[in-house]
Design the sequence.
């Protein structure tokens, strides 16, 4: 069965290709050469989707909002009423834009990872291309988002309480001889928490894609039709699990960022 | 195929990094035991408390999901260290 002469063109792909960072093209910027990788392209694609599609969807031309508008509005209202208002209280309206941005960006990146963009481009152009992949399966991407959360947490805390008060508020209410150790622990936890945010998102998405790649790779290992049927069914089931993990990890990242912002902006003691 | 695996095993057991890979794989299994016990205990208590008070089911489910994701975060942190052990030995 020949598909416009493209027989077996997708079989040359390494199943782990979406989670590896492949260079696409290089352009020079003043003195430096900037190499654009497929994960950088996915970040740009997610940003373009969010900047173009979401304002177009929520622009209200008729009286009653349509399907996609209601979806975005339901998610935003859920994040404001169930996540931001209970955790941040009166500060919720200042940080709700950041919380919405974090959630939608991570969700879009996670969902775009399940779309085999590079396979579509290969089928169209006929050459093996890497224009696609799982950006959140890259520790640098999730590390950058955790760094943004880190700066947001501490800069909002400093702006809210003043620099001296903010450093002083790390001091926990314990007897004076225990204070240096616990203060040191609080300082470390200020760095470990965003690092755990990055690792949690990175490892969840990476593990899901490695699992899908391994089960698909069993077809190449056994080269039998019955193995291909079972493997395909298992991959479909695991892909549903991956879609759930995409939503869950975006929600967890957003919730924990809101929680840490509330710790620094409105300290509970 | 079995004698190929046998020669591969005798060839590999002469290098010290085999024990490091063995340690990484065994520790991966132990990590999963701890995580499965923790998340299973959370799930069972959440289901019990929903059975006691069904109208609080939504809030209990939210708390369960958040606690399970936090435990899973720590698990993946340890699993990444296991994976890095194997990668650094190549």
Sequence:
């Amino acid at each position: 069965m020949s598909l416009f002469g493209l027989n077996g063109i997708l079989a040359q792909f390494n199943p782990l290709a979406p989670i590896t960072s492949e260079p696409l093209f290089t352009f020079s910027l003043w003195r430096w050469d900037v190499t654009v990788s497929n994960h950088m392209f996915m970040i740009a694609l997610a940003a373009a989707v969010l900047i173009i599609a979401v304002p177009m969807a929520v622009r209200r031309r008729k009286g009653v909002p349509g399907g996609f508008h209601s979806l975005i509005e339901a998610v935003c209202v859920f994040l404001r009423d169930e996540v931001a208002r209970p955790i941040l209280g009166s500060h919720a309206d200042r940080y709700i834009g950041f919380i919405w941005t974090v959630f939608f960006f991570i969700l879009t990146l996670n969902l775009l990872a399940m779309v085999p963009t590079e396979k579509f481009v290969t089928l169209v152009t006929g050459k093996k291309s890497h224009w696609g992949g799982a950006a959140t399966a890259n520790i640098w991407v999730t590390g950058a988002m955790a760094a943004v959360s880190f700066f947001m947490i501490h800069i909002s805390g400093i702006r809210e309480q003043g620099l001296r008060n903010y450093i002083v508020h790390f001091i926990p209410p314990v007897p004076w001889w225990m204070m240096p150790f616990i203060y040191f622990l609080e300082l470390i936890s200020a760095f470990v928490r965003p690092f755990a945010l990055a690792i949690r998102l990175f490892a969840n998405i990476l593990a899901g894609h490695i699992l899908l790649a391994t089960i698909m790779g069993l077809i190449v290992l056994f080269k039998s039709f019955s193995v291909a049927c079972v493997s395909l069914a298992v991959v479909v089931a695991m892909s549903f699990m991956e879609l759930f993990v995409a939503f869950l990890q975006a929600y967890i990242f957003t919730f924990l960022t809101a929680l840490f912002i509330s710790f620094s902006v409105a300290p509970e003691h | 195929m079995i004698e190929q695996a046998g020669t591969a095993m005798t060839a590999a057991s002469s290098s010290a990094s085999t024990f490091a890979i063995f340690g990484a794989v065994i520790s991966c299994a132990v990590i999963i035991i701890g995580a499965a016990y923790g998340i299973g205990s959370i799930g069972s208590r959440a289901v019990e408390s929903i059975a006691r008070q069904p109208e609080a089911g939504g809030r209990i489910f939210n708390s369960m999901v958040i606690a399970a994701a936090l435990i899973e975060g720590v698990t993946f942190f340890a699993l990444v260290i296991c994976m890095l052990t194997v990668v650094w030995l190549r």
In short: Chain B has a mean pLDDT of 84. The CA atoms of residues 43 and 87 of chain B lie 34 Å apart. The first helix of chain B runs from residue 2 to 12.
